[in-house]
């Protein structure tokens, strides 16, 4: 058996404990229920922890045995759970044995079954030799790759191709879980939803599109799913080995009640053809899921799907979205001292905090700019700039961009382009509860926590009115990652998913209304005008 000590140092175990009601809901959605014969196939719990899933699974297995006339003594191979933490393994074996004893199983048999079901081992390393199973259920550990020893990380990556780049360990657990499924077997998990939308999840999404069916996706943003606070919002997914069928999406309301959970499970069991209302939040059914490596929405309405079929993306409509330049050392390159360097090496810079109220409130900061139109400056030509940067040379030279080009240690990560400063543009904060465009008439370079939209053929005030609307924001809230503070990542990759009409297709009167709504920060007026512009006024 492979343990942490067999391959480098132990890793941070990343245990986040799932609340009991979430476990019961997930087991119901996984169809791991006592009314079926649970002795007929095997269920795997990849990261058992202290038994949040395993103990309820034992309870259901006992009821199933009673209902179907099966002997519990013959179930040694129907549960298979792993954990790297020997203390957690010991505790969970004790809990499982206690549950068996409470149902009349002898001490000796209870201990034997518990010891066989729950293994001290690494699921990621042992999954390749496991037999095919009917169920995989659980909460994969959230462990950052920085917390994994290099030998272990290399072993993981050799086995699990989805663990590339910045993908954390839970992505490997998802791929490994899918790999052990038999035909029509299902994996039902709760974990961060970031892999569904971030670049590091693209390989896993592509693999799922090729060989699996996403049966359901439950966004748990509003629910307290774990015993402790977590930095990322979770989602429950059920993924089946087989051809894609109907997919159910559900966004948990605030607060999520027992009645809502019951309604969700009922909606799942009734299927897409049953139109009865079962819970407060909307349950949507789609006849297909998403192709290839495209990011997945947390829920997608029929209205949004219709807009995507009819209207162009921002790029197709003549709008370019970019990020503000990164410096790699903002504390050095951004200054409030207008005399720090030569005047022509200072560019007014603006960040997200200065557009918070919907207009520009410049705080007097400048970007120390080592670039001209022709390229990186020679420090000998700028004695004040040279003296300023030399004071911070060690810090600047330690950046990756400087190590790659040590003879240009004073460069910023991204080039500062004069045309970006001079261009009229919409500034859009990266982390916000909605798209929040603010007009810059060509005065500032945006910091890297701002994105900006340039559209030479548009009246930017009309574009701003469209982008501030609920309809445009719906694209971001559907596809983006939601942060722990409830805000969304409003980054370029999600803004590029936004659909808008061509400028020439917007009636002149509607343009006027959008322009006015933007100038007055009138969300209701923007929504009304956008509804007409999007062709939804009669729907």
TrEMBL record:
Domain of life: Bacteria
Reaction(s) catalysed (UniProt annotation): a 2'-deoxyadenosine in DNA + S-adenosyl-L-methionine = an N(6)-methyl-2'-deoxyadenosine in DNA + S-adenosyl-L-homocysteine + H(+)
E.C. number(s) listed in UniProt: 2.1.1.72
Residue stretches making up the Type II methyltransferase M.TaqI-like domain: 136-226
GO MF annotation list: site-specific DNA-methyltransferase (adenine-specific) activity
Gene Ontology annotations of biological process type: DNA modification; methylation
Keyword Methyltransferase in annotation: yes
A Pfam family this chain is assigned to: Eco57I
Main enzyme class: transferase
Keyword Mitochondrion attributed: no
InterPro entries, alphabetized: MethylTrfase_TaqI-like_dom (IPR011639), N4_N6_ade-DNA_methylase (IPR050953), SAM-dependent_MTases_sf (IPR029063)
Swiss-Prot/TrEMBL keywords: Methyltransferase, S-adenosyl-L-methionine, Transferase
Record-stated family: Belongs to the N(4)/N(6)-methyltransferase family.
Protein name: site-specific DNA-methyltransferase (adenine-specific)
Organism: Mycobacteroides chelonae
